Amino acid sequence: MNTKSLWTNERTRGLIFQILLVVGIAVFFAFIISNTITNLEKAGLASGYSFLGDTASFDINQRLIEYSSTSTYGRAIIVGGLNTIVIAILGILAATVIGFVAGILRLSKNYLISRLVTIYVEFVRNVPVLLQIIFWWVILLSLPKVRNSLSIGDSIFLNNRGIRLPSANFYEGSVLVFSALIFALIVIYFIKRWSQKRQAKTGKIFPFGYTALGLIIFLPALTFLLADQPIDFNVPTRGRFNLKGGFNVTPELVALWLALSTYTAAFISEIVRSGILSVSSGQREAASALGLKPSLIMRKIILPQALRVIIPPLTSQYLNLTKNSSLAVAIGYQDIVSIGDTVLNQSGQALEVISIFMIFYLTLSLITSAFMNWYNKRIELVER
Amino acid sequence: MRLNLIRFAAMAIITLLSFGTAHASTLNDVKAAGHLKCGINTGLPGFAFTDDKGNWKGFDVAFCRALAAAVLGNADKVKYVNLTGKTRFPALASGEIDVLSRNTTWTFSRDVDLGFTFLGVSYYDGQGFIGRKSLGIKSAKELDGASVCIQTGTTTELNLADFFRSNKMKYEPVPIETNAEARAGYLAERCDVYTTDASGLAATKSTFKDAENHMVFPEIISKEPLGPVVRQGDDQWADIARWTLNALIVAEELGVTQANVNEKAKGTKNPEINRMLGKEGSMGKMLGLDATWAVRAIAAGGNYAEIFEKYLGTKTPLGLSRGLNALYKDGGILYAPPIR
Predict the structure, then answer these.
(1) Does the distance separating the beta carbons of A42 and B152 come in below 8 Å?
(2) Do B183 and B167 belong together in one domain?
């Protein structure tokens, strides 16, 4: 085979072009990266990630792990990352519940209900989410001032600095209570399997919900009493400026949570509606003909089929919510961007901090989509 | 066809490579461009704000104008680049601006680690607290357990943490990105006190409807020497900018004002004035400028005192007295080296 025929052969020619393309792209990126590094070094901008070990010297008001102003920048960024994960999880849970309820209600035959939901969806999804975050924050700031806090039994306080709840102190033996809780969950799982099998065989329905609720309360409560009450509560008291003790949920967290979940829920409700409408009406009619209750038809017939349409766009909404949480900086919820900005300003390492943001959000998004893709695979229509 | 592709690729790579050219002298760059690129705040009463015609005004802006006048002969030949606390340093380091005049605190790490040269101090500031009189306290040292509103991304967060730690007090930080929202949070009593530089407290307090119910606590918890900044490595440019600032201060000392500078440039009995204004010696030439650079810098917006009184002084809404920023001979610490 001479070179001429190598060129005229469609297969090898395609291969040559593919190799050329790959090499070209590799050279292009190698050039961009090396050029950026050289220029940054020339400008004295890049000096690596060693600054993450330096002392942060600033404080953070919401921290899930031990942190003080003598901790490192790296730890401060981890605290911020955890705060972002908290708001992402809370937001996704609430948005899913609100979104599914709103989506189903919008298809309600009750004119008033479906109209109200339409108004909610159209209003919320057409106003920029940043404005909604600030809106909720301002609403929460107009709650009673700290001196006039509303309180429930002098142990839970509500004011414009947040909701202060009693925090729990764990003593020796509290492990038993948690073990009891886990044990209850395992028992519930087996009861569920057993009741499903029995129903499939005999058609008898087991009151599963009540049993589960009873177990989950009864077992830990019993252990709590038997183990000499190993948990007590640190009740907040009024201090000079603020309430002291207990656990404070800041208005920033609540405002961000309300705004993000209602905003994303409006989009989710439309996705749910389209999913439900995609299930052919014959399915519903057939189910009614069998005498199933409307709520059972929705749960057992319509939603499982609608989910196949709902899940892929739902994943995008979850990712959007996570990324929108970076708007927190406007009202001072200390998420990764808010804390990262401070680190950036303090240390001057702009490029490094921004790259941490990018890697963090990318990782979070990839984990979310990996989970959702797994779930999507599981509920996919299995064709025989 | 293939040959063309390769040629195209080669050309593209050569073009891209040529982007990484070295910086020439900033003075030549500014002269060639015909304007000065000056980094200023996105908006801070007194320091950088727009008037009703949309022109940038203020204490920090006045320095840009003086420098443009000294270098280019025209105070209006300035291109303002509005920068946030986050973008200011990358903008300066990358050459997007020629000089940064944006109430920037001169600190060790910024000067040494970030590769910048601070030109001097144009305003001596310090961080303070504002709180309601109804709190019933007289000093910031009684703030144990308080909630404190702060603007994020500034040295204030750090000073605040240091202050509370060294006084063994606890607090809840409420960091908010912009001054407007931080102010809203303070007014809604989300926080007991609001902290920022004393000049900023004065500016913020001037906008309160019930200003008489608020007080600025006597403690100043940090040193915040604010001044203009340039990139490290171009000493000629740093000298030009530094001595423009010094000339404005020396002009106040010697009684040279916007109104009389042209008169005095013709020659006076004071040799120091003559040297500064180019009548004697060759100061301008040493800088790489012409003899009357300082005349133009002073004529652009007046001397230091005139600029201060116009934008920050007691007759403005900010109502700041000179305090530390008075000349050393008037009880302040403002002191410029002699021009000789």
Answers:
(1) no
(2) yes
B88 and B48 in a single domain? The answer is: yes
Interchain contact B154–A (C-beta under 8 A)? yes
Token representation of residue A340: 């990262």
Q: Are residues A34 and A183 in the same domain?
A: no
Residues in chain A: 384
B120 & B36 share domain: yes
Q: Do B145 and A241 touch (CB under 8 A)?
A: yes
Nearest-by-CA chain A residue for B95: A43
**Whole-complex ipTM:** 0.72
Block residue for tokens 């049993």: A211
**How would DSSP label each residue in B229-280?**
EEETT-HHHHHHHHHHHHHHHHHHHHT--TTTHHHHHT--S-HHHHHHTTSS
Closest CA of chain A from B17, distance in Å: 8
User: What's the angle, vertex CA B275, arms to CA B272 and CA B277, rounded to 5?
Assistant: 105
Total of domains in chain B: 2
Q: Looking at the structure, do residues A121 and A267 belong to the same domain, yes or no? A: yes
Q: Helix A303-324 and helix A350-379: axis angle, to 10°?
A: 180
**CA of A368, closest CA in chain B: separation in Å?**
29
For residues A256 and A229, membership in a common domain is answered with no
Rounded to two decimals, the pTM is 0.76
From the list B144, B126, B281, B296, the residue with the least C-alpha distance to B216 is: B126
Whether B243 and B326 map to the same domain: the answer is: yes
Residue of A nearest to B85 (CA): A345
Q: Where are the alpha helices (DSSP H) in A325-349?
A: 336-347
Q: Which of B222, B257, B276 corresponds to the end of one domain?
A: B222
Q: B168 with B234, same domain? A: no
Q: Same structural domain for residues B115 and B264?
A: yes
Which tokens belong to A180?
């009891």
Among B173, B177, B182, whose Cβ lies nearest the Cβ of A59?
A: B173
Regarding whether B62 and B35 lie in a shared domain, the answer is: yes
- For the stretch B19-59, pLDDT in tens is 444 456 899 999 999 999 999 998 888 899 999 999 999 99
